[in-house]
Design brief:
Layout lengths: L10 H10 L4 E5 L3 E2 L39 H4 L2 H9 L2 E4 L6 E6 L2 H10 L4 E4 L4 E6 L5 E5 L2 E4 L5 E2 L9 E2 L2 H4 L30 H16 L5 H16 L7 H13 L4 H14 L3
Parallel strand pairs: 6-10
Antiparallel strand pairs: 1-2, 1-3, 3-9, 4-6, 4-8, 5-6, 7-8
Helix pairs in contact: 6-7, 6-8, 7-9
Length: 284
């Protein structure tokens, strides 16, 4: 991926250069959309292409099936049907998943600000309205995972806008977690803990002690700049070891800790898993 976009609009040489580097490419029409299926392939009547998980291969010589048409085969790219398509094309696109990549498409300045604060640095490519952040690794694609953020990887395409700057970073868990579907009303499970032994008074049940402990735990999570998963688990473990067995903690306390973790990019599922694992570690 070393060839910049030819500003004269001669897209085939760019496509051939990318294909030689193992990047599957396809032409885009004006409006950044792929060429539509021909009448014979409309609605996948032909059976579709194998990587669209449809039965049987499609032998259509045209660049049908959107992202699934992306190829590294120079004979296909230079074929008469594709040559005509390149002549009408407005841009070159590629299939990130087919190249072993994931593109985090940041559509505005707010999305870019979030990425700079939450994601590890990696190769970036300037776009018309924002930036593409490229990571090494493949994951499911999804739109609108956050305001102004799309994920383009498997079964998707991205416009080729040049090689970008900076080294590629391995795809981080925080990006993978963006496409994990969770119930909108998901909440931490209520925590059932033993009562103080022999009916005695809990030594931790003073409002000041507990409030300070929860505030310190929230701050510890908020201040984490790396290893967020490990920090969240360690914090949950510390809170439960101090307050878990005496019945101090309420659902409101756990909700505050979960909110702090989610503000650092943790998903509700990861929070619940960390809390459950901490309970298990402590034999609770």
């Amino acid at each position: 991926m070393t060839q910049p976009m030819d500003i004269r609009g001669e897209h085939l040489p760019v496509a051939l250069s990318l294909a030689a580097d193992g990047v599957p490419v396809l032409p885009l029409r004006a409006g950044k959309v792929p060429f539509g299926n021909c009448p014979r392939c409309a609605r996948n009547a032909c059976g579709g292409r194998p990587n669209m998980k449809q039965p049987g291969p499609c032998t259509c010589p045209l660049p049908c099936h959107g992202w699934a048409a992306a190829t590294t085969d120079p004979d296909v790219l230079n074929s008469p049907a594709w040559t005509r398509a390149w002549g009408q094309a407005a841009a070159v696109a590629y299939h990130p998943g087919g190249a072993g990549l994931t593109v985090v498409d940041l559509d505005n300045t707010d999305a870019i600000t979030w990425a700079r604060e939450a994601l590890p640095a990696t190769r970036t490519v300037a776009t018309t309205r924002g930036e593409h952040w490229l990571y090494q690794g493949v994951m499911p694609s999804a739109n609108a995972v956050r305001p102004g953020v799309d994920i383009k990887s498997s079964m998707s395409y991205a416009r080729w806008l040049g090689p970008g700057t900076g080294p590629l970073t391995a795809l981080p868990d925080i990006v993978r977690a963006l496409v994990v579907k969770t119930p909108p009303a998901a909440r931490p499970a209520p925590v059932t803990v033993p009562s103080p032994a022999r009916g005695g008074t809990c030594p931790h049940r003073t409002p000041t002690y507990l409030a300070r402990g929860i505030a310190m735990a929230e701050q510890r999570i908020t201040d984490a700049t790396a290893a967020v998963h490990a920090t969240v688990f360690a914090t949950f473990l510390a809170v439960l070891s101090t307050h878990g067995r005496c019945g101090c903690l309420t659902e409101a306390h756990t909700a505050r800790l979960f909110a702090a973790a989610q503000a650092k990019g943790e998903s509700p599922r990861h929070c619940t898993d960390a809390w459950t694992n901490a309970l298990t570690r402590l034999g609770m």
